[in-house]
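Revision sheet: structure tokens.
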Amino acid sequence: MSASRPIPSDVVQALYSDHRSWLHQWLRRRLGCAEAAADLTQDTFVRLLSTRAQLGLPRLNEPRAYLTTIAHGLLVDFFRRAELERAWLADLASAPEPVQVSPETRLLVLETLLAIDRMLDGLPAKARTAWVLNRLDGLAHADIAARLGVSVSRVRQYLATAARHCYRLRFGAADADADPAAAD
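Predicted:
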């Protein structure tokens, strides 16, 4: 099958019926929770259908390896989300006054944190740290420089790198390096 032609839905059904139980067990061993494993099993096949609709699928000589690759990516996202949620809830718990957050607000905050995490994931470690210290902790450039053991001008470079990275992710690479003065 070519990569540009979607595979027939009966092939996806066969993959589902032949490998769903195996994939569920594979995920259950890693998560220790049957319900979370069931959710991620379903998410794996949803992702498979989405990929199939967007790109078509190549011939699957090793369907379990392909499913495992998709499921592994979902596991990483699952654990990353859980870690962000734990950190956010710990921050809420350490607040001087108890904060009550609605489920809707909680979901919005977690989705925003995940989007920020994905954005920052593509940055070098010091640029990511400088951005977090500046934007989330509100530290000045000199304070960040002292923490990172670099010059203030290097902190500015890190923050510029982060800004360009964010711009590219949000708007694409076409205008990311354009000189705004040249547009006048």
